[in-house]
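Exam revision sheet. Question 4 asks you to relate a sequence to its structure. Input first:
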Amino acid sequence: MNLPQASESDRPLSQLAVHSDLDEIETVLRWFEQLSDPAVPSELWMQAQLALVEGFTNAVRHAHADLDPPPPVQLSVQVSSQRFCVQILDQGAPFDFDAALATVEKAMEATGEDPLAREAHWGLVMFLKLRSAYGWTISHRRIGAATNCLSLCHPLSADGGTGRSS
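Answer key, structure tokens:
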């Protein structure tokens, strides 16, 4: 995983591997809630939680849909003095996340479409909003021959703020 190097004051990387099953969402949420960190503003924590649920759900429903038995979904959270990161790893087929984001963004711009009126791709709309309006860095990359990694990171300032200028 490509997370920041921890210093003595940074929280160690927290990881969880869960069955690729939507019934595991409760386990995922309990794990995430117990990691709550005062250095991360509550609004930022809630954004990350929403993205974590969406990413996990996509891994189960799409990436692992045709794999029998489906491999576990691997999750990680890192809070450093500079940033807050969440990663979701799956074993699905390669997926061009950037192209999918661009397609949804282009369609919304061309039609002036209300994102809430969409029937599909709500997750992509949400990721676009997290990136454009809330300062998240979101990337999706292939690791090796069989792993997809969705990474969401947000800067933190020394005073516990979000590290964004308004």
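Marking note for examiners. The chain has a mean pLDDT of 87.
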